[in-house]
Amino acid sequence: MLEFVGAIVLLGGVGYLVDERSGEGPVGVLVGVLCGVAVGTYILLKQLLKLTREGEAGRR
Predict the structure, then answer these.
(1) Cα 47 from chain centroid?
(2) CA distance 50 to 44
(3) Quick check: 60 pLDDT over 70?
C-alpha cells in the first residue's frame, strides 16, 4: 500500500515541478497523479499475484 501512495506522491510531485517550471496550469500535476495511480496499481497487482502464487505453492 505504501508503494501505491508513494508512486502517486512522487509522480504528482514531478508533475508539480514541471508545472512550476513551465508556467502552465495543473496539467502536469494531473498527468503525474494519473501516472502515479497507474504505476501504483501495477505494483499492487504484481505483489498480489506473487502472494497468490506463493499461497498456491504452499498448498501442494
Answers:
(1) 13
(2) 10
(3) no
